[in-house]
Structure formats: C-alpha cells, structure tokens
Amino acid sequence: MSPDGHRLVTTVATLDDASTKYVSALWEIDPAGDGAAHRLTQGADSATAPTFDGSGSLWFIRKSAQDPDADPQAALWRLPAVGEAERVALRPGGVASIVTATASDRVLVLADVLSRTPDTDADVRERRQTTTTSAILHDRYPVRHWDADLGPGRPHLFDVAHDGRLDPVVTRPGAALRDAHVAIAPDGDVAVTTWRTGAPQAATRTALVRIDLRADTPTEPVTLRADPDADFFAPTISPDGTRVAFVSESVTTPTTAPMVTVGIIDLATGAVTEPAANWDRWPTSVSWSADGTALIVTADDDGRGQVFVIDATGREDREPVRAVTSTDHCYSDVCVHPDGTTLFALRSSPAEPSHVVRIDIADGAVTPLPGPAELPALPGTLEELRTQTIDGTPLRAWLALPHGASEQARVPLLLWVHGGPLASWNAWSWRWNPWIAVAAGYAVVLPDPALSTGYGQNFIQRGWGSWGFEPYTDLMAVTDAAEADPRIASERTALMGGSFGGYMANWIAGHTDRFRAVVTHASLWALDQFGPTTDGADYWSREMSPEMAVENSPHLYVADIVTPMLVIHGDKDYRVPVGESLRLWYELLSESGLPAADDGTTVHRFLYFPDENHWILKPQNAIIWYRVVLAFLAQHVRGETVDLPDVLGDVEIAPHDPM
C-alpha cells in the first residue's frame, strides 16, 4: 500500500504461453472497490516484490524471462507516481529483496556478494563463469536450504543512491543476513534486521540488530535483542520510529515444544515488553496500527487464520487482545491504511484461493475487492467435522464432499495429512488441492491432529516428541468420525500425506491395514538417517532425542506394511533428502509385508522427479503428480484402471487383491 493509502498493488502469477512456467506481474487493486483491477507490468518478464517509498514511487524486482540476449539477473526497477517505469540498478548476482521507508526516499536492497568486497564482485563472478567453476567451500553450518545450495555468495545490505549506485551499509556481514527480515524507520534513518550468528554444536541463533543509515560509510550493527534460548523474526518499526515489534520463538528441546510470542523493544532504553504474554496463539505476522497504539497480528485459530489487534500501550482499560475477523478464512499480507480504521489483506481458505479484501478494524466487516480473476466454481462443498480423541481432546477437520454425495450415492474417502507438523489446514493450496480429488468423486478430510497450530500451546505439546502416538490416534479418530458419515463409503478409504504428512502416512501404513492405498510424498522414513542429513539438522537435534527417534521411526515397522504405496520424491529436496524415499522404496520391495514378487514386479510405485524439490512446482510436473496419484487411487480404492500419461513411458498401475 502506498503511504497515502490511495494505491494497493499485489503480485499475480499466471502460466506462460507454453504452460511450462509461471510469470509474475504487478496488478493494482482499487482500495475503494469501485474500479476494476488493472495490470501494471506487461510482457513475459516477471515482476515481484512491490513496495512504495515515501514519494509514492513503486519499486519492484524484474527478471527477463525470454530474451536470450538479456541479462538474466533480477534487476531493480522503479515506477514513479507520474511517468514510466525505469531500471535503477542491474548488478551481477541480481537483487533478492527490497525495503523502503514510508516517509522518505530511503531504499535498501539485499543482494548476494561473491567477493570480499562489493567492488570486485563482478570480476570474480565473471572468472567463476568463464572457468566453469562450481565448487563451494563452506566454513560454517548450514550448507543447504530447501532446494538451494548456500554460497559461495553471501547476502549484503545496500543503500540505493539516487543514481542507482548500491552502497553497502554494513561491513562484511558474512552469513548474518541470510533470509534476513529488514525494517526501516519511516524517516529512513535507522534499519532493524534479523542477524544470524553461530551457536554451540553447529547451531545458529537469530538476533535483532540496529543499523545507522545516516553514516557515509559501512557501519557495525548494534545488537538490540539476542538470547541463546530464542530466535527473533519479523521486526517492524513503529510509525514514530521509537519502538520495534517482533516475533520471538523459543529454542526447543526434545521434551519442550517452541513458544511463539510478540515483543516490543523501546529503541531509546532497550526495554522489552510482551504485550500479549498470556495469549495462547502463535503470531504469524505483525504490523503497527497507524497511530502506533496497537499491533495488527495474524495467527492460526481453530482451523482458520484470523486478524487480531494487540494493545501496545499497556493501559489496563484496553483489551490486551481482540479478534478482528471471525470468518472461515486465513488472512495474510496485511497492509494498514493510514486512516487507522481500515486494513487490506489477502484472504484464502480451503475453498477459496487468495484474493484481496478490505477489513474494517472496528467491526471486523470484510469486503472482497475486484481482483484479476473471479473465484473458481467448486465441484463440491466444504463442511466442518468435529470429534474428540481417545484422551478427550477436541479435534476438528474440514471435509470436502462432491456434489451429489448421499447415503444412496456414497463416495470413497481420502485422509490428507498436512506437513509441518506445526501447521494447519486453513488456507488454499495449489499443490495439495482437495478439489481435484473431489472432482474425481472422492471425499477429502483435512484434519488438524496434535502438533497443529491454532489450538493452543497444550495441543502442540501433547504431540511433541511423540509423532507416532498422539498424532496417530488423532488421525484415526478423525477418520472414524468421517467414515461414520452415511455419505462416505467407509470400506473404500485411502491415505495421503506430504513431508510430516508423509511421515504419518508411512507410520500409519505400518500400524494398520484399514486403508486401501497410501500415497507418501517427500516423506521421512528412517529418523536416525534423516536427522543428520536434513538441511536443518541443528533444529532436528532438538526435536527428538536418539531414543525418541527410534521409538517414532516408521522404518522399524516395514514388515507390517501390507498396503499398496505410492512413493513420491524430488531429487532437489534438501529438507527431506531423497535418500529417505530411496531407502523406503528398497525396504518396501524387499522387507515389507507386501514385497515385490520373485520376478521383481510390485504393486507399489515410485514417482521420482529429478528436477523438483520438496514441492512439485513446474506446471507440467504438477499435472503428472495429480494424474499418477488419481490413477493409483482409482486402481486400489475403486478397482478401476486409468491410463497414465504417455510421457511416462510404458508403465501402468498394477492391481492388487488383498485376499
């Protein structure tokens, strides 16, 4: 949102002409809701990361998509309030992110630097390219993140001069600014950013530091908040520039789940307060109200993601936490209008993809705004299912049903287990979209078992370190409740999950034969193997003790698996390395209760993506993912043979007779 509140810009991704990749463009939304949305950037180039400066100029990152002669690096662009867009800076290695001040023309960018000093970066990059050098020499942990090799470049923070020159603002930050969250005071004089530091046993901690932007030369940051027992994220500076709000996450132990809270630092005194210390929800984002008296926070809440107001004055006559929204949606990317009465946000749910809405802070009224596209029609309905687990803990889930499902026309059931595990089924997903399965005639239940967010700290703690126990019994209780619905064909059920959900799929496959098929995507299989090889081994070492890893490892129950399994993995997955599925595949065929036949044939299948990561992102690969999953389910749940895409070669889904 522009500082004057008159303009609202978002990013929209669409398929290119060949339907092989996504292209992002900037679209302007009318905050009043009177005019139609219109596209700001044109052509095949991708435009991302829009942000306004104090003058009303719109800054963004643009990357050439098709021109073989164009520099492929992401360039910094500016669209003034009046005039045409212009390229401001193009540097080797590109630009990663932009931060702007709301009451000045200060603009900062994060960009990787390969050499010791930014001045020689271009020369070093050219030599690395011409000599085809790909080696990376690491001097610290970690070395990978999600699907990216870290290094050899390291992120630096630059001040953008009027002539497009990029001036470093801190001296040799090393890896401290990796994945940094940077905030600028409205007047542009001070920045506050996250700052990574090393910790014992190859761990890292994330602190908050203050950077003086008025200096003519790079300076050393000043630590605002650091704690060996916590990490700090999402800093945001108050409208008057005197305070910093942030999110804190406590360091876990194998017996203690993390706690996520909101804090405020007084920049003059360094004093820290927790304005919602007794609030039993985890904040996911934080912004200041226009007058600086409150924080606007989003948090998962009972299968939704609502907007809340947290008092920042400490006055006893003010409500500490107040819910603003109460709809069946998840809100994100909140923008605060300068009038102090209105918010703008993205809103989605399992039944609606993201769209822009206006929110009245006083009464919580939500108004959808005209966007680039209409919301899609769904092939079914979404209902809420509530039950309780064996220990009496309340449980809930979403249940998506095809149109026409009835006691006379019962439909098979798919149990989908979300990843995380600290997450919730409360938003739209293109990668795990239940409506594709619903359109194929399945009901899909989306449960939030123990460890899910939005139900309080105790709900997370009850599953901490015991993945194979409370989460498992919770999922079985939800499945029982769904199967009791007379519209469900309870004898025809299947199970699917990805990441932690894939772990649960593997665990469940070794502990019950109630499901006709199991789909396990990017899953954890052998926890002793997974722990040291994931990209965040330091975090995992605090998640479970070695004894817990043995107690909760699915691979120890491979002999009890008698259900056909579809194993899926991307080779570029560094969060759950592909070795997990390679081992699962071999042990499934050689040691399970449903092994390969003597001639090597098997009812199990392994869908492998050499160029994908933890998520299947390329459009045509995503289509293959859905088609193979639905073909596997059709064969084993319905007894129907569905042809596979011919681009997969001469393969098919083999039938299985459990008798």
TrEMBL record:
GO molecular function, one term: serine-type endopeptidase activity
Domain called Peptidase S9 prolyl oligopeptidase catalytic: residue spans: 428-638
UniProt keyword annotation of Nucleus present: no
Entry's Gene Ontology BP terms: proteolysis
Pfam families attached to this UniProt entry: PD40, Peptidase_S9
Keywords: Hydrolase, Protease, Serine protease, Signal
Gene3D superfamilies found in the cross-reference section: alpha/beta hydrolase, TolB, C-terminal domain
Keyword Amino-acid biosynthesis: no
Domain of life, source organism: Bacteria
Designated name of the protein: S9 family peptidase
Species of provenance: Williamsia herbipolensis
